[in-house]
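Hi support team,

I've been running sequence recovery on a batch of backbones for a student project. Most finish fine, but this one hangs at about 90% for roughly twenty minutes before it completes. I'm not sure whether the input is malformed or the queue is just slow. I've pasted the structure tokens below so you can try to reproduce it. Let me know if you need the job ID as well.

Thanks,
M.K.
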């Protein structure tokens, strides 16, 4: 705690403790390994109170196509941590986005936040814009809205909107509230649609917006609070 909140190295911090320069709640502490509560205990180094800034990091990242989300890949494929090399040992992704897809991915160093958002019980809506080959029928789209039977179970009802048609391609906007592996792709394959492009554009209240490919931004406080409230309330 001393090393984190002062200019002292870990070794120098240990020497300060042994020299009697550290007080916890007014009592001199000279035993190494003493446990303190950084939120409630008052720790002083000589006459200076030490305060640890335990700020968590929450980012929205625009994942490029053809990057894995894992820390490493046995097949040697590029990962997002090539782009985010300075954060590799500090952050983890909230869920996944498959190799061929691009779009919004949340990153954080808050393990509780990750567990909250990825727990199967907590249904956060995720929205995708998908170009498919051909023109799905109204009956096909209704199947997506009702739920598709996949090998790992039936999907929950999805929100599906046909946005536009261009020649033999169709743009769909699909929102789901679960996270089966490659779920949107498999749902579309089930109704005979070949996915040409898939981009995740929203996770709950967090929008991809104009965030450029390979770039990231801090999540706003309101976005974090909204995500946590949605998870706890689901």
């Amino acid at each position: 705690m001393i090393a984190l909140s002062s200019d002292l190295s870990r070794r120098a911090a240990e020497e300060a403790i042994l020299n009697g320069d550290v007080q916890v709640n007014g009592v001199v502490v000279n035993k190494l390994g003493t446990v303190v509560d950084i939120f409630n205990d008052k720790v002083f180094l000589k006459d200076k109170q030490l305060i640890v800034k335990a700020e968590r990091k929450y980012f929205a990242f625009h994942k490029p196509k053809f990057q894995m989300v894992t820390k490493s890949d046995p097949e040697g494929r590029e990962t997002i941590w090539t782009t985010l090399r300075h954060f590799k040992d500090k952050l983890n992704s909230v869920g996944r986005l498959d190799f061929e897809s691009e779009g919004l991915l949340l990153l954080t160093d808050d393990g509780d936040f990750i567990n909250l958002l990825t727990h199967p019980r907590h249904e956060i809506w995720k929205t995708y814009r998908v170009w498919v080959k051909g023109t799905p029928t109204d009956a096909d789209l209704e199947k997506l809205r009702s739920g598709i039977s996949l090998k790992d179970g039936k999907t929950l009802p999805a929100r599906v909107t046909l946005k536009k048609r261009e020649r033999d391609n169709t743009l769909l906007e699909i929102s789901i509230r679960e996270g089966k592996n490659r779920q949107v792709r498999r749902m579309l394959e089930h109704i005979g649609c070949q996915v040409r492009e898939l981009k995740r554009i929203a996770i709950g209240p967090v929008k991809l917006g104009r965030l450029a490919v390979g770039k990231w931004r801090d999540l706003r406080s309101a976005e974090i609070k909204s995500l946590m409230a949605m998870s706890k309330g689901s």
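--
Follow-up from support: It reproduced on our side and the slowdown came from queue contention, not your input. The chain has a mean pLDDT of 92. No action needed from you.
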